[in-house]
Amino acid sequence: MHKIDLNNFQVATTRTARDINRRVVLNLIRKHQPVSRAEVARRARLQRSTVSAITEQLIAERWVTTGASGDLPRGRKPTLIHFNGSRAGIIGIDLRPSETKIVLADLEMRFLAQETIATDRDAGRFILVLCDRVCRLIKSHPHITCEGIGVALPGRIDPCSNRLVFAPNLGWEAVDLRNPLTGATGLSVELENAANACVLAEIGSEVYPESCRNLVAITISEGVGVGMVLNGQLVRGTTGWAGEFGHIVIQENGPLCNCGQRGCLEAFASNTAAIRYFREIASKRNAGAAPPGFDSILRMAEEGDRNACDSLNRMAHYLGICIAIITSGLSPDVIVLVGEVTRVWKQIRPVINAVVKERSVFNARPRIIPAGPETRLRGAVALVMQRHFGALYSF
Ligand SMILES: [Zn+2]
Q1: What's this model's pTM, rounded to 2 decimal places?
Q2: How many Å lie between the centroid of ligand 1 and the Cα of residue 202?
Q3: How far is the centre of ligand 1, averaged over its atoms, from the C-alpha of 88 (Å)?
Q4: Which of 60, 20, 53 is nearest to 37 (CA)?
Q5: Structural domains in the chain?
Q6: How confident is the model at residue 179 (pLDDT cuts 50, 70, 90)?
Q7: Interior/surface letters 343-356, b for 16+ CB within 10 angstroms, e for the rest
């Protein structure tokens, strides 16, 4: 049951019904294309005349096109409807402390152009460069009409000021990204925590059955973020900051976290933690210099280096603890892991599974899977996509 907020509600009008039906039809066409109007009507459980009227409107707005006729054993051949994925472009930005990726994607999540720039510690200087690169990317594709910019961030957005706040691994404070980007491009800008963006990309992908409505994404990078879709809805909480499992303290007086607390889960399960483990293990064994970064540890592990493998196993142990906490607290269908560490999935999977098994209170455990490539960028694009394809109202 979704509780109705009697201080902030919206009553249904004829337009409400029309908007909901339109979204259902558009989603069905996108999912089952090429598809006939009759098939859409059957799947939507709507009158054929209703579906035809919506389809005409979608054709006029170039959301869908009509294509070749379908094959039926006998009788009139229906005209098939195709989703027009190239109707518009979306700019996706994945901002991380070390580097920032920018993509131009179409409405079918096909990446048309992609580039990477270094993230500057100086926010003001960086935003100027970012705006310039985004403008150039848009200008170099004059045949594509961009309809928005989605930004996945390693932090939280203050819902009142729309500024980036609480980004401990980035070190920026109260930064306004929206106005400079809108000013430079004229496009609307969606800002969202990276883990939330990732879970939206995942729940909207074809990988999961329609019945999957409880999905958690864990982003593992310089920090550990958690995005949650429960009962089919993104969970934000009162503050809009729900999901900060990375800053749950699991060890009193543990290592200092960038958030200012000691012993946060993030300080044990992030890429940064694995680099620390490597240094500790290597110095204890009087072996090897400290690696320049997490990527080197991954590469060394892939080549069988014992110190690198042990560092990643220790990190995986704490990821297992994180997953066990989420499993016991939220009972999701699927937990999807997003991050470079999934490159060594074969190695870390048994470590994670063993910890989750040992620490879970339920017999039924969620599926734990690694995400596909570029999930954070897909998440940034999904922030704009959901304007058209997400459910319109929450019931
Ligand atoms: Zn912390």
Answers
A1: 0.91
A2: 26
A3: 39
A4: 53
A5: 14-83 (1.10.10.10), 88-200+378-389 (3.30.420.40), 209-372 (3.30.420.40)
A6: very high
A7: bbeebbbebbeebb
